[in-house]
Amino acid sequence: MTLDTALPTIHEEALDVWGGRLTMRVKVAGAGAPLLYLHPAAGLAWDPFLSHLAERYTVYAPEFPGTSVGDPYAIHAVDELSDVVLIYEEVIRRLGLVRPVLVGQSFGGMLAAELAAYFPALPEKLVLLAPIGLWRDDAPVANWIATPPDQLPALLFHDPAGAAAQLMLKLPEDPEAARAATAGLVWAFGCTGKFTWPIPDRGLRNRLHRVTASTLIVWGRQDRLIPVSYADEFAVLITDSRVVVIDDCGHIPQVEQFEQTVAAVDAFLHGELR
Predict the structure, then answer these.
(1) Is 13 in a helix, a strand, or coil?
(2) Out of 49, 54, 136, 203, which could bridge 29 as a Cys pair, Cβ 3.0 to 4.6 Å?
(3) Model pLDDT, residue 247
(4) For residue 4, what pLDDT band results from cuts at 50, 70 and 90?
């Protein structure tokens, strides 16, 4: 299990949803039982973690409205967080997925938790990787949108100079391509930030008791964006849950500590983690 896991064959499905007002693009790879992956605020990047999951599952990875190339204004069709949840549930039905595993990272973790709370019978299992969605005044969540770009690595990674962080944050060498990538990141932050700020709390705390799926919560001990204390907050609110805290790790455990993260996720999905 390494970060150079081979890239699988990926194809894309385009689904017209939300009364025809929105086209959702979904990346699909792998074979096996269905697994829906919900990406973080920066947009979808097919990384070694997804490639690893695709070795055992058919992975479906929707792009959040407005983050798909060539369709930036799709976000204007979505007004409320409840709309987002209903749109994703419609995508799941349109794809024909029956009790998929739900996996979400950060902003995507919040969406996965919302889906499991709105529709308790929908997921087979739930994996939350450092999800946002809760707020405590004594442990505020950092505002990644307002963070200057040169300070983002230190916010996201325990070791921002490490190889995993550098690989993930590396921009294209061509200046024009680098500018386009930066603009895409800013736009993705804006699209997802519409449903999180000024405080990333939209009442999820009041809904988490509805989650009945067996849940794994994974957190980096040195997470500077969302303090690790939130892992226990989620665990208290989700009845059938367990927490894995990974040392020497920031906000993106599946990148910074790939092997430890996939070991925990695999053990949970295979019924070996109690």
Answers:
(1) strand
(2) 54
(3) 98
(4) low
Given a contact cutoff of 8 angstroms between Cβ atoms, the answer to whether 261 and 218 are in contact is: yes
Q: How far is CA 127 from CA 14, 107, 153, 243, in A?
A: 25, 13, 24, 10
Distance CA 222, CA 228 (A): 7
Per-residue pLDDT, 175 = 78
Residue 145 neighbours by CB under 8 Å, 6+ apart: 41, 189, 190, 193, 197
| Ordered DSSP codes for 96-139 | T-SS-EEEEETHHHHHHHHHHHH-TTS-SEEEEES------TTS
* 238, 215 Cβ separation under 8 angstroms: yes
Q: Roughly how many angstroms between the first and final C-alpha of the chain, as a whole number? A: 22
Within a 10 A sphere around the Cβ of 209, how many other Cβ atoms?
11
Sort residue 50 into left (φ over 0), alpha (ψ -120 to 50) or beta.
Answer: alpha
Q: Please state whether beta strands 57-62 and 101-105 pair in parallel, antiparallel, or not at all (unpaired).
A: unpaired
Sign of CA dihedral 104, 110, 114, 117: positive
CA gyration radius, the chain: 17
pLDDT given at position 235? 98
Per-residue confidence (pLDDT) for residue 2, from 0 to 100: 52
- Tens digit of pLDDT for each residue in 176-209? 777 888 888 899 999 999 999 999 999 999 999 9
The Cα diameter of the chain in Å comes to 49
**Spatial separation of the C-alpha atoms in residues 157 and 164, rounded to whole Å:** 9
Average pLDDT, the chain: 94
CA separation (Å) from 212 to 103, 119, 237? Answer: 15, 9, 11
